[in-house]
Amino acid sequence: MSGYSVPQSQVGRPTAWWGMTILIASEATLFGTFIGTYYYLRFKTPTWPPGGIPEPKLVVPLVMLAVLVSTTVPMRLAATAARTGRLAATRLLIAVALVVQSGYFAYEVHDFSDQLHRFDITRNAYSSIYYTLLGADHAHVLLGVLFNLWLLGKLARGFTRYRIHAVQAIAWYWLAVNVLTIAVIGTLLSARA
Amino acid sequence: MSLRRLEILQWVGLLLGALVWTGQHVVGYGVTEAACSPGGTHWGIRTDTWEAVLMAAAAGCVLAAGLAAVTVVVRTREESYESPPPTGRVRFLAIAAITANLIFLVIILLDGLGSIFNVACRQG
User: Fold this and answer.
1) Omega of the bond prior to A49 within 30 degrees of 0, cis?
2) ipTM for the complex?
3) What are residue B4's phi and psi, to 5 degrees?
4) Alpha carbon distance B86, A116 (integer Å)
5) For residue A83, is it within any domain?
6) Tens of pLDDT along A85-95?
7) Measured torsion, CA atoms of residues A72, A91, A162, A138, in degrees rounded to the nearest 10
8) How many domains does chain A have?
9) CATH code at A19?
């Protein structure tokens, strides 16, 4: 049992949701600027990617993207479970999402360092914006993983209104990160077009 | 002051800074394009004057937005930002608005001063 009576109704969304919305809006602006920079550079450059850099791979990034996006489901279900006071289900769903997200992040860090050996970030404008976009996205995934770890630590001691709101806000964060990752991977793979 | 009025002030405080900076940047970019493009040179547009007026107007709006946010924070001082909505939300977003307006004021000044002191029409 959670030991906490879940409020059945309240006027408007909790402050945590609004705080997360502001964070997401500012991060979306950041990524919008990066993506705008990418296409600005692309349209100024006759060959893309320039300087003999190979085109980005297609299959593995799409598979990894699907893996990450699939974690939207357990995170949304965890938010629903938290709202209805099911503590064990909330913990389990967050733990499942965390395992998948950590696996995704570990692979992406390995792939990132592998790519750096093939062309480094200072090589040209393409490599700069490529690694900036990818690195910023990975940083947001890492932040989400840390959020989930913190959340599981908090939920080990049961529900409070604050923790229920935190589950909902972090599920909202993951939805935004997954949408941003789709935008980032779509942008980077557009170099193949 | 009614809660409804506080909510309006809070949203003005939160959103006005972003909107006026966007306006300053987009209009400033358009003015520079018009002044420097071959079709617009005969208009004699003074980009420095335009940028200074845009910067002053935008900074004035941001200060007004900040004042609105401060008013909300003062009027909700009996509440906590963790209070249930709507009062907790109004206070929280007003605090966020004060921070955002400080940042937008700096951005607007840097945008304006950079445009004024930089050479507008230069071969790219």
Assistant:
1) yes
2) 0.70
3) -60, -45
4) 49
5) yes
6) 999 999 999 99
7) -40
8) 1
9) 1.20.120.80
